[in-house]
Amino acid sequence: MQLLKADFFKLSKSISPWVLFILAMVSAIIFAACSHYVATGRLGFETASGSLSLFSETQMMALLGSIAAGICLTTDFENKVIENAVSGGYSRNAIIINKMVSFFILIALLYLPYVIITMIFASTDTVFSNFIPTSTLNILSEAATQEFTAGLFGNILITSSVSLLIFISQLMVGIFYMFLFKKAVLVIAATYMTSLILGPISSLNETVHSVMAYTPYGIDLSRLTLVMSGEFIIKSVIISFLFIFIFYLASFFLFRKAEVK
User: Fold this and answer.
1) Do the Cβ atoms of 53 and 158 come closer than 8 Å?
2) Rounded-to-integer distance, Cα 34 and Cα 214, Å
3) Domain count of the fold of the chain
4) Secondary structure (H, E, C), the chain
5) Torsion over CA of 251, 104, 30 and 125, rounded to 10 degrees?
6) According to the model, what pLDDT value does residue 82 have?
7) How far apart are CA 212 and CA 130, in angstroms?
8) Per-residue confidence (pLDDT) for residue 210, from 0 to 100
């Protein structure tokens, strides 16, 4: 608990998490605006689904999440914070869990702007287009045709929570890379490249897809809708938690044998 408090204090005093949060907020606003303009015919579908798709939560979570893993957490190795924690008597398992919790909270903070956007516009009659099948646009486009009720609010929370869990599990490799490389630049590059490569690679062929389907990178994000099935939710949650646990174990065995210096 002391390690976690120390991490929260350090992050609250650091400008990096807040800069990343502002970037996520700006991206969420631009993404929602693009969706609205496509729906009203003021923006072409090709333009929106091209370069402007970079503002989607799938792209921004991969980019900003990778930066968060490097700048906000891995610098503790470079600044000897981890070394001091080990020499101070904290177990390596406690250090790993602390970093995981801090990282999960950071990812949730970065995803929050997209949830806020969906909550705000779900209660209005503003029209949106799901020109890219992401959870944010699926929610916005579907909610526009429904009356805002407690049931709709609950469905938005469920869809957003499952989506967040998938993103966290995809970025969990960043924790492993942190204990592997111990350098912020390497962690950022490796985490981002992993997310960038493993997502599209799952659609190469049936064999690759059948394997990747058991990882969070192979989960069909277009199915993250307000009417997604219970089976899809359960499968996504199980895959995500298993992936998180596997990389927790990998990080633990790696850090347990590593020399901290």
Assistant:
1) no
2) 32
3) 1
4) CHHHHHHHHHHHHCCHHHHHHHHHHHHHHHHHHHHHHHHCCCCCHHHHHCHHHHHCHHHHHHHHHHHHHHHHHHHHHHCCHHHHHHHCCCCHHHHHHHHHHHHHHHHHHHHHHHHHHHHHHHCCCCCCCCCCCCHHHHHHHHHCCCCCCHHHHHHHHHHHHHHHHHHHHHHCHHHHHHHHHCCHHHHHHHHHHHHHHHHHHCCCCHHHHHHHCCCHHHCCHHHCCCCCCHHHHHHHHHHHHHHHHHHHHHHHHHHHHCCCC
5) 140
6) 84
7) 25
8) 81
In degrees, rounded to 5, the angle at the alpha carbon of residue 60 between the alpha carbons of residues 78 and 73 is 15
The verdict on pTM exceeding 0.90 is yes
**Residues in the chain, total:** 261
Residues 131 and 152: their CA atoms lie apart, in Å, by 22
Neighbour tally for 80: CB within 10 Å: 12
CA atoms of 11 and 73, how far apart (whole Å): 9
Q: What angle do CA 210, 215, 220 make, to 5 degrees?
A: 75
Per-residue model confidence as pLDDT tens digits over 62-78? 999 999 999 888 888 88
Instruction: Give phi and psi for 147, each to the nearest 5.
Output: -80, 140
Structural domain including 214 reads 2-257
Check residue 97 and give its pLDDT: 93
Instruction: Please provide residue 126's backbone torsions phi and psi, each rounded to the nearest 5 degrees.
Output: -65, 135
In whole angstroms, give the CA distance from residue 187 to residue 168: 16
Residue 261 is predicted with a pLDDT of: 53
Return mean pLDDT, the chain.
89
Residues 6+ apart with CB under 8 A from 206: none
